[in-house]
Automatic annotation (TrEMBL):
It comes from Povalibacter uvarum. This is Tetratricopeptide (TPR) repeat protein. The lineage of its organism: Bacteria, Pseudomonadati, Pseudomonadota, Gammaproteobacteria, Steroidobacterales. The keyword Signal applies. Residues 1-19 form the signal peptide. It comes from the Bacteria. InterPro entries: TPR-like_helical_dom_sf, TPR_rpt. Keywords: Signal. Gene3D superfamilies: 3.30.1150.10, Tetratricopeptide repeat domain.
């Protein structure tokens, strides 16, 4: 199975914002104040004023207008106005080329923004050339090891992975580490978040052992340099723990994870599904150590602590031991209830609705994942069911489908065996009815209906 498919199945997308200048010009101050507060409507309005004030484009105003359009595109991208963002960044590129040069540093932000916008629309093949060009200009302007290129390297790696160019993506992720080592030094604790970033990429493409090596390296470095009980050890500990459930998810997709080499597109490797009850003791110890550190850190982040508690609850739910999950979920629910301001807003979704923790993917749903869209027909089974206080599922039924009998049967069996993080109200788990889930099957065009 290709790395692009794996990435699409288990990775979550987070929006990429335009890079904020280190020193903000005075004419942009209002915009960045709105941007920093994530008030996207106000940031868009401010940027529109800057754009209007810079028109029409002349030899004197062309580059300033390009910069204002990049600011506008950045706010529109974060707002989710992708068509408008693409238009703004496209015009910004054209202006920077016309009034600067094809290698001008003024092109970095609009090229990067256009690449990010296209990637957000899953137009990765179109996005890659713009980001490649932005990276080349950035290195010519700021040097080979400038920290500002890290966002570009990460997004380039993600887009390359999704189009099946994992080896090239790996080179970009390794360069993230090289940049950090050059700027910070190999033994600097500021390398720890970079180990986690690159480790996350390896995990997404199914290379579990290289990912864990980086997480362990992060734990070791942070423990030596900051102290074994320092909050800086928490991030790699949580990442290491999460790699074990993800490995089981990958195994249910038939992916061989115990390898240190990227899978070749033409290679078929099958792995037997792993049993969720036998999660590694190393992962559990990592989780409990992270929680102990957070419990004894007075100025801990509420979001990090609540997230770690929920992750620990999920760990035991994944292992089919809901009784051990509940104390962690309940403690997280208490933290969420006490949270204020932005913390409360960011944490509200954690326990406000059932979340799928374990789902044994139907074997028929793992077929044809690498085939291009023109070679497959997508079928679906839409299910509805009840999630109980202990995370178990009952009353499952089909509410819509165009699938085969076997596909329907496997979908019902899978949801019956799944486990959910329950919804919490007033600090306690409750039964939730009419929870929905859609299972997609990719069937070869022309294949028999019974497949």
């Amino acid at each position: 199975m290709g790395a692009a498919v794996i990435c699409g199945l288990i990775a979550t997308w987070s929006g990429m914002s335009a890079a904020q200048p280190v020193a903000q010009p005075s004419w942009q101050q209002e915009y960045w104040a709105r941007f920093d507060n994530k008030d996207w409507d106000a940031a868009i309005a401010s940027a529109e004023q800057l754009v209007a004030a810079s028109r029409p484009a002349t030899a004197d105003t062309g580059l300033r207008l390009s910069e204002a359009l990049s600011l506008l595109g950045g706010a529109q991208l974060n707002k989710g106005n992708l068509v408008a963002a693409e238009q703004a960044f496209t015009e910004a590129v054209q202006l920077a080329e016309k009034y600067g040069s094809r290698t001008s540093a003024a092109l970095i932000d609009p090229l990067r923004g256009l690449g990010y916008t296209l990637a957000t629309q899953n137009k990765h093949a179109q996005a890659i050339p713009y980001m490649d060009r932005a990276l080349l200009i950035s290195r010519r302007s700021a040097g080979l090891f400038d920290l500002s290129q890290q966002g570009l390297l990460r997004q380039l790696a993600d887009s390359l992975t999704r189009v099946g160019a994992a080896p090239e993506a790996e080179r970009h992720m390794q360069y993230v580490l090289r940049v950090g080592e050059h700027v910070y030094g190999e033994d600097d604790p500021r390398m720890v978040p970079l180990f986690c970033v690159v480790g996350d990429w390896y995990l997404e493409v199914g290379l579990v052992e290289p990912a864990r090596q980086l997480y362990r390296q992060g734990v070791s470095l942070a423990s030596r340099k900051l102290g074994a009980d320092h909050v800086g050890v928490v991030q790699p500990l949580l990442a290491l723990a999460q790699s074990f459930p993800k490995e089981i998810v990958l195994s249910h997709l038939g992916i061989v994870t115990r390898s240190d080499k990227l899978p070749q597109p033409e290679t078929t490797m099958i792995m037997e599904p792993m049993n969720p009850r036998y999660l590694s003791g190393e992962g559990e110890r990592a989780l409990l150590r992270a929680l102990k550190i957070l419990e004894t850190t007075p100025d801990r982040s509420v979001q990090t602590y609540a997230g770690a508690l929920v992750q620990t609850g999920d760990w035991f739910m994944f292992k089919q031991t809901p009784a051990r999950s509940m104390p962690y979920y309940e403690q997280a629910a208490k933290l969420i209830a006490e949270a204020k301001g932005q913390d409360a807003a960011n944490l509200q979704s954690l326990l406000s609705f059932p979340a799928q923790v374990y789902y044994p993917i139907p074997s028929l749903a793992t077929r044809n994942l690498n085939r291009p869209p023109n070679e497959v027909v997508e079928r679906f089974v839409q299910l509805e069911f009840t999630v109980h206080e202990d995370g178990s599922v009952s009353d499952e039924r089909v509410v819509g489908q165009d699938a085969t009998e076997r596909q329907v049967s496997q979908s019902l069996e899978a949801i019956r065996s799944s486990r959910y993080r329950p919804k919490f109200v007033d600090g306690k788990p409750i039964v939730t009815t009419a929870v929905g889930f859609r299972q997609i099957f990719r069937q070869r065009g022309g294949a028999k209906e019974t497949e």
